[in-house]
Write a structure and sequence with these properties.
alpha/beta; TIM Barrel; Oligo-1,6-glucosidase, domain 2; five-stranded antiparallel beta sheet; globular; binds 1-deoxynojirimycin; oligo-1,6-glucosidase; cytoplasm
Length: about 550
């Protein structure tokens, strides 16, 4: 397996709107991030992935871009961005930008041209279709943010496709001129010294010819259906990614990760096999669906370690020879990992460290989401108005306001699954607004900031922060964490995830207890070979190897 910087790296994701405000407008910004670079250096991360900072009307917090080559007013200027990049590079940190090229904002100059007339040269940059007879939609696809995926534009009497909000029209990748324009824009950033790209829903850029309606058996006339099978991992996606790789990406020494909802292991191999020259890794979503019922994301369902482990194991084995895994348990679209997969009450600190051990000892590149390193938790705002996320509001309108679903049930689902769980401002200290802003924060803070904050974490040698710092440092000293072969143990255990990593003469045993009760470890052969403890979340307290305490994580080096 080739050794590369992006396999060895630990990535830290910043959602700029919620990280640090520097000018009192209640919105995080680039100068705010600049003021926190020493903190990131102290943590030891190699790469920062910055969620979008480009000009945007913020219908979807920057994932709707109106100018790809300039910075959003609220976040600062191109100059600030250049200073941020320089500040990162001075500290040995690389910068990964977010590339949102499945769609743009409806306020992008291309779309303004495109919608202006049917024969405008930019018309074909987007996906326009006439309606059906009697004013029906071009097809029955629903938008991922609720409602139809089509919007009628009065000026020309045609509909445009938007897989996300109506302010996020899909770009037409079939058009070679559009692709050229995007490659030129990407080159603009890479020439400025950007070190990596995270590509938003990149597996949705190729739609099946004819945009067929999704299967409608059992649906009432006019009822919408998902349609994902016609736009996820579509017919020309590999051709486009290979082209982008050859024309742009391969000319730079950069890191790439594609966001690919619905991708299978086979799809992921096709995207990330180095010989195919497309991407380096993808964010797969299977483990993010482990607590979703048949009704989808908002149909909250209990999950079990058996299910979670089966998924993670499948991906470990599936990408062992070809391709590469990204390792994440949360990001700006997902609930907080300690609330979802650990225990955010009595065992918050211990379980956050256990999950961190998992992320850093599986094979792949770990991604830390801001605040994870101090164990930030989900939030339960009592009022819908406290939420800002478009996905949440659209879903509520569809299900409760229009659909008659029970308010309390849906609010509960928002508490468990809503994206604003991850977006509450970063908790720096116990002062007003957690040191995030002097103004009125754009989204309410999690009230637990008086206890859970960076100041507290830095003052406590046993904090989650220092545990992450140690894991990251261990990765630098131990290539086994990056390149070691993964092998599952105790495949049937209800509560323990156990595996080994092996690299040449080195062998590690990882034991993780996913429950709040002690669990016995039936591994006498392996346990008889313990040479030393590499890291454990109960610190240096004496251990009884054949038993794991609640949420205990322990990594042993074994004699071979
Ligand atoms: C995925 C992004 O991560 C999410 O935040 C965004 O809403 C959609 N793509 C649309 O860009």
């Amino acid at each position: 397996m080739n050794k590369t910087f992006w396999k060895e790296a630990v990535v830290y994701q910043i959602y700029p709107r919620s990280y640090q405000d520097s000018n009192g407008d209640g919105i995080g910004d680039l100068r705010g991030i600049i003021s926190r670079l020493d903190y990131l250096q102290k943590l030891g991360v190699d790469v920062v992935w910055l969620s979008p900072v480009y000009k945007s009307p913020n219908d979807d917090n920057g994932y709707d871009i109106s100018d790809y080559e300039d910075i959003m007013d609220e976040f600062g200027t191109l100059r600030d961005w250049e200073e941020l990049l320089a500040g990162m590079h001075e500290r040995g940190i690389k910068l990964m930008m977010d590339l949102v090229i499945n769609h743009s904002s409806d306020e992008h100059a291309w779309f303004l041209e495109s919608r202006s007339s049917k024969d405008n040269p930019y018309r074909d940059y987007y996906i326009w279709r006439p309606g059906g007879p009697e004013g029906t939609l071009p097809n029955n696809w629903s938008s991922i943010f609720s409602g139809p995926a089509w919007e009628l534009d009065e000026a020309t009497g045609e509909y445009y496709l938007h897989l996300f909000s109506r302010k996020q029209p899909d770009l037409n990748w079939e058009n070679p001129e559009l692709r050229e324009a995007l490659y030129k824009m990407i080159t603009f950033w890479l020439d400025k010294g950007v070190d990596g790209l995270r590509m938003d829903v990149i597996n949705m850029i190729s739609k099946v010819d004819g945009l067929p309606s999704a299967h409608s058996e059992g649906l009432a006339p006019g009822e919408l259906a998902g349609g994902g099978e016609y736009y996820m991992n579509g017919p020309r996606v590999h051709e486009y990614l290979h082209e982008m790789n050859q024309q742009v990406l391969s000319k730079y020494n950069i890191m790439t990760v594609g966001e690919t909802p619905g991708a299978t292991v086979e799809d992921a191999i096709a995207y990330t096999d180095e010989d195919r020259e497309e991407l380096q890794m993808v964010f797969q979503f299977e483990h993010m669906d482990v607590d979703s019922g048949p009704g989808g994301k908002w149909d909250v369902t209990p999950w079990s370690l058996t299910q979670l482990r089966d998924i993670l194991h499948k991906w470990q084995i599936g990408l062992a020879e070809k391709g590469w895994n990204s390792l994440y348990l949360n990001n700006h679209d997902q609930p907080r990992m300690v609330s979802r997969f650990g225990n955010d009450g009595q065992y918050r600190v211990i379980s956050a460290k256990m999950l961190a051990t998992l992320l850093h000892t599986l094979k792949g590149t770990p991604y830390i989401y801001q605040g994870e390193e101090i164990g930030m938790t989900n939030v339960k705002f009592p009022l819908l108005e406290d939420y800002q996320d478009i996905e949440t509001h659209n879903m509520y309108r569809e299900k409760v306001t229009d659909g008659g679903a029970d308010h309390a049930t849906i609010l509960n689902a928002i508490h468990i699954k809503g994206r604003d769980n991850a977006r509450t401002p970063m908790q720096w200290d116990a002062s007003t607004n957690a040191g995030f802003t002097n103004g009125m924060p754009w989204l309410r803070l999690n009230p637990n900031y008086s206890d859970i904050n960076v100041d507290q974490a830095l003052a406590d040698p046993d904090s989650i922060f220092y545990y992450y710092q140690k894991l990251i440092a261990l990765r630098k000293q131990n290539p086994i964490m990056v390149y070691g072969e993964y092998e599952l143990l105790l495949p049937e255990h209800e509560y323990i995830y156990a595996y080994t990593r092996t690299l040449e003469a080195d062998k590690w045993l990882v034991l993780l207890n996913f429950s709040e009760t002690p669990q016995s470890v039936d591994l006498s052969f392996e346990l008889s070979k313990i040479a030393e403890i590499v890291i454990g979340n109960y610190g240096d307290q004496p251990v009884e190897p054949a038993s794991l305490r609640p949420y205990e994580a322990i990594v042993y080096r074994l004699n071979r």
